[in-house]
TrEMBL record:
Signal peptide: none annotated. This is cysteine desulfurase. Residues 3-370 form the Aminotransferase class V domain. Belongs to the class-V pyridoxal-phosphate-dependent aminotransferase family. Csd subfamily. It catalyses: (sulfur carrier)-H + L-cysteine = (sulfur carrier)-SH + L-alanine. Coiled coil: none annotated. Keywords: Pyridoxal phosphate, Transferase. One of its GO terms (biological process) is cysteine metabolic process.
């Protein structure tokens, strides 16, 4: 039996409706949206519009034109960071971010943007007070992940949002490990920019992502070019969402994403959260019973998402990952998880950790198989 425990990288399997929607868009619709007045193209436009509406509703956003489709969370974060910041701006971020945010910020610092990284504690948490203390009069942006992809720590984004608003800056949240898994009302929290992959908790295919851009926030587009509207203008259209969506959209991917979000709506995000919390508890309890294993991250009753990282004395993460895969057909992720600074923060650099991330479709039995296999590998 094959066991997949790397849902933090991409969710698998997807709900059946996702495969069907991709197939329908590719086989039956076939064409791109907004490029023709014929019925086939109008059908593609409808698919894209309905997905945009569904994502907006999930995030508490009233105006769906503020939801921009991208190819990944990484592209969304690049658009947010490089589109917003100018030389002389100051940004506050944290020491537990993914490279998808770290690298655009690093590139911005090469263009004269100042970046301050607030230190997280060893479980991966930052405090609103520490974020507030790092802010300056020229702080334009506070940028951080909602849920750490290394430790699972869930940041107090509401309290951080309040501090950010008090000081007149903008808040960018990387919701890669929370969108679709943890209820998130972006406007209510005071989020100005929210980046999310379509292919993790939202159950869409790879090659999908979104950026929510709050009303009044203006970004320089990452790309300009074909938008299917305002064809006689040389300037990129000002209208949302076309301003940030150049090139023919990934209609099959967006169709699948729409079906993924519809599945979340049908199931209820609270039910998804409850199920994943129960799986995480089962994993943490199992790991707690292994004397050679150390968990790096919050306890089950602390604010956390569906990611569990651990290491073991005498067996390195790579060996554990290899043996889980080859001897037991169990897929987990090992190493630095694209977040080296997070590992420096929690004391697991440079070896990294073994990361286990169950998803909504993971069964208790699969977790049990993983725990049994791990016990055999690390020796009790
Ligand atoms: C916290 C975090 N941010 C960003 C990303 C990048 O997502 P994507 O693969 O959609 O670019 C990931 C996924 O690996 C992640 O875990």
């Amino acid at each position: 039996m094959s066991v997949y425990l790397d849902n933090a990288a991409t969710s698998f399997p997807k709900p059946d409706a996702v495969y069907e929607a991709v197939d329908y868009a590719l086989r039956r619709v076939g064409v791109g949206p907004g490029r023709g007045g014929y019925r086939r193209s109008i059908e593609a436009t409808r698919i894209v519009f309905e997905t945009r509406e569904a994502v907006a509703t999930l995030l508490g956003v009233a105006d769906s034109s503020r939801v921009v489709f991208t190819h990944s969370a990484t592209e969304a974060l690049n658009l947010a960071v490089s589109g917003l910041l100018s030389p002389g701006d100051h940004v506050v971020t944290t020491t537990v971010e993914h490279n998808s945010l770290v690298r655009p910020l690093h590139a911005a610092s090469g263009r004269g943007v100042e970046v301050t990284s607030v230190a997280a504690d060893r479980r991966g948490f930052v405090t609103p007070d520490a974020v507030a203390a790092a802010m300056r009069p020229n702080t334009r942006l506070v940028a951080l992940s909602h849920c750490s992809n290394v430790t699972g720590a869930l940041q107090p984004v509401e309290e951080i949002g309040a501090e950010v608003k008090k000081r007149g800056a903008l808040l960018l949240v990387d919701a890669a490990q929370s969108a679709g898994m943890i209820p998130l009302d972006a406007p209510a929290i005071g989020i100005d920019l929210l980046a999310a992959p379509g292919h993790k908790g939202l159950f869409g295919p790879q090659g999908t992502g979104i950026l929510y851009v709050a009303d009044g926030v203006e970004l320089t587009p990452l790309m300009v070019g074909g938008t299917g509207v305002h064809s006689s203008d040389e300037e990129q259209p000002a209208a949302m969402p076309e301003r940030y969506e150049s090139g023919t959209l990934n209609t099959p991917g967006i169709a699948g994403l729409g079906a993924g979000v519809a599945f979340i709506e049908r199931t209820g995000i609270s039910a998804i959260r409850e199920r994943e919390t129960s799986l995480v508890r089962q994993i943490l309890e199992g790991l707690a019973g292994m004397r050679r294993v150390t968990v790096h991250g919050p306890a089950a009753d602390e604010p956390r998402g569906s990611v569990v990282s651990f290491s073991a004395t005498d067996t390195d993460p790579q060996t554990i990952g290899f043996r889980l895969d080859h001897d037991h057909d169990i897929s987990v992720r090992v190493g630095l998880h694209c977040a080296p600074s997070a590992h420096r923060t929690i004391g697991t650099y440079p070896t990294g950790t073994v990361r286990v991330s169950p998803g909504f479709f993971t069964t208790d039995n699969e977790v049990e198989l993983f725990l049994r296999a791990l016990r055999e590998i690390v020796g009790g």
